[in-house]
Design brief:
The structure holds two protein chains of two kinds. Chain A is mainly α. Chain A contains 13 helices and no strands. By secondary structure, chain B is mainly α. The chains are: A mainly alpha, B mainly alpha. Chain A: InterPro entries: ABC_transporter_permease (IPR051393), MetI-like (IPR000515), MetI-like_sf (IPR035906).
Chain lengths: ~290, ~300
């Protein structure tokens, strides 16, 4: 039997399409529906509560705290993860001996689970961990720095983890972009007497500007979605007084247990979605402008 | 006046020569100085990226008699021992957790490789009504952060009777829209001429996929397989929401459980993290050639 019928494409696309509808489209619609209810993680006794969940969000100090944390997270990650991976990509671009070893090694933090690296970080930044011990041995500090127990330091510890884990990921994206720059551009610049630094600014940076914008957006969106780093560094509790939380951590907390509230968690999910849209809209705008000019 | 001109001319002469030399250097073999500077920087970054893993490995090998809290930290364990690994195996069912993680990862790799290849091919290379709408649908879901739908995802899995099961953990991630789009992108780059020859010869859609298009996109398939495995093996939030019974934990959840229960035994936690990390590190270092090649072919550029 010939399989070249009109329905062949549909058979090929059917599983992926069914998955898309069942696990992306339907959950999105269902999230909106549930945000107007008080659905519980256990049992099915849910009621329509109107806008109550959204009104509650506006008066919820935890939500405000999570948004402040996310804002800090984004503002610190943005410059670091846009610039440092580019520098590393330039460093590993040249095919030197052992370079594939270095590339693989630099990518290692990306492939490790956030739980694994979170626990490694917890040990490094412990009151009696390596960082504090070395700093004290060198007499840089008198007592241990409370990286994991101070309300604000926890955020910066988690940021350092995110940045460290993200270097290799964005390095690879830059590396692909660097491969597209013609060698003749660099050669021409070198002929004109431009040194390595000059060439970086006048050839490399302008040619990866598009990738840079994309990476900036990706960094912002993933900073807004942070969960595992904060969860592991604070042992799942969100630091002193539960202040070191992100929006996703709040969603997770409301998704579990007897006192959970899937309705409220759904309303928080909608808030998360709307916030992550902001960087994407910025990207769309920049792209439009680039096309016009 | 005259002096300036002479110095200018004098300065220009060596400059062009230096520029020539530099050009020669940069685009042939790197000069000695450049190499040294590059290697120094490479080793510095290497120290930052691998150092934390090595410190954790070192901690996991230290015996109970060795002070791990000293302000005079020693990297090489004085009496290296595997006792901490044994303790972990006795404290939690590590092999069960590894098995659970492998089941979830295998389902993710199989599902994503097979079904995103099929869908990507159909959208990129076949002509059919509705293809643009389907493509648009896949693109549209990219703006959805997974975390925003995780709650109703859980409700869906629960209503399928799969809450607190490994299938429930694996199911939603078995076909990711992003992978369909990556395959679509890869198939689109296959030259039309080769494909048209197949159409002329009367090949069916399935034959065109299997014999003509598939060999050309192996790199992207490798990237998808590697990413799916790593993603499933490392995932934390989703299994944390789905699973409640300790026997069904995946390795990441088990590890978090271990660290909560034995919080004051850093040697044991270190051994646990190494048990979770070493397999994925081996898998990746064996497959890294395919990964980086696939990325260069444009797998990730999108």
């Amino acid at each position: 039997m010939r399989a070249n019928r009109w329905f062949s494409p549909w058979i090929m696309v059917a599983p992926a399409l069914i998955w898309l509808l069942a696990f992306s489209v339907w959950p999105s619609l269902n999230t909106i529906r549930m945000s107007f209810t008080n659905a519980k993680p256990l049992g099915h006794n849910e009621h329509w509560v109107g806008l109550q969940n959204f009104i509650e969000i506006f008066h919820d100090d935890q939500v405000l705290g999570a948004l402040i944390n996310s804002g800090i997270y984004m503002l610190v990650c943005l410059p670091l993860l846009t610039i440092l991976p580019l520098l590393i990509a330039v460093l590993v671009e040249k095919k030197l001996r052992f370079i594939s070893f270095f590339r693989t090694a630099f990518y290692t933090p990306v492939i490790a689970s956030a739980v694994v690296v979170g626990l490694i970080w917890t040990w490094l930044l412990d009151d009696r961990g390596l960082v504090n011990n070395v700093a004290q041995a060198l007499h840089v500090i008198q007592g241990p720095i409370p990286f994991l127990t101070d309300r604000w330091l926890v955020i910066f510890s988690a940021i350092s983890l995110t940045v460290w884990k993200g270097l290799g990921y964005y390095m690879i994206i830059y590396l692909a972009a660097l491969g597209n720059i013609g060698r003749d551009l660099h050669e021409a610049a070198a002929m004109d007497g431009a040194g390595a630094v000059r060439r970086f600014w006048s050839v490399t940076v302008p040619n990866v500007r598009g990738t840079m914008t994309l990476i900036a957006i990706l960094v912002c969106v993933s900073a807004l979605r942070v969960f595992s780093e904060l969860y592991i560094l604070t042992g799942g509790h969100g630091g002193p007084g539960g202040q070191d939380i992100s929006l996703v951590m709040l969603i997770q907390q409301y998704a579990r247990g007897f006192y959970g509230n899937l309705g409220y968690a759904s309303a928080l999910s909608i808030l998360l979605f709307l916030i992550t849209l902001i960087p994407m809209l910025v990207l769309a705008r920049i792209n439009n402008r680039a096309e016009q000019s | 006046m005259t002096t300036t001109t002479t110095t200018d001319a004098a300065a220009q002469q060596p400059l062009t020569r230096a520029a020539k030399r530099r050009r020669h250097r940069t685009f042939g073999e790197a000069s000695m100085t450049e190499k040294v500077v590059r290697y120094v920087l490479l080793i510095f970054v290497l120290f930052i990226t691998l150092g934390p893993f090595l410190w954790e490995l070192s901690t996991s090998l230290k015996g109970p008699d060795e002070d791990i809290y000293t302000t005079n930290p020693q990297f090489i364990p004085s009496e290296p021992t595997l006792a901490n690994y044994l303790h972990v195996i006795q404290a939690i069912p590590v092999f069960g957790y590894i098995g659970n993680s492998l089941i979830v990862a295998a389902l993710a790799v199989g599902g994503n490789v097979i079904f995103s290849t099929l869908a990507g091919f159909a959208i990129a290379r076949l002509r059919w009504r509705g293809r643009r709408i389907v493509l648009g649908l896949f693109l549209a879901t990219l703006v959805l952060p997974g975390e925003a739908t995780i709650i109703s995802q859980f409700v869906t899995v629960r209503s399928l009777g799969l809450a607190d099961s490994l299938l429930g953990v694996a199911l939603p991630g078995m076909i990711a829209a992003l992978n369909v789009l990556l395959m679509y992108n890869a198939f689109r780059q296959v030259p039309d001429e080769i494909d048209q020859a197949g159409v002329m010869d009367g090949a069916t859609s399935w034959q065109r996929l299997w014999f003509i298009a598939l060999p050309a996109v192996r790199g992207t398939i490798a990237v998808i397989a590697i990413f799916s495995f790593i993603g499933a093996w490392d995932d934390f939030l989703w299994p944390l929401i789905v699973l409640t019974t300790p026997e069904k934990f995946t390795l990441t959840i088990g590890l978090q459980y271990l660290s909560g229960t034995f919080a004051n035994d850093q040697r044991m936690i270190a051994a646990g993290t190494m048990i979770a990390f070493i397999p994925i590190a081996i898998v990746f270092s064996v497959l890294q050639r395919f990964f980086f090649k696939g990325v260069e072919e444009g797998g990730v550029k999108g």
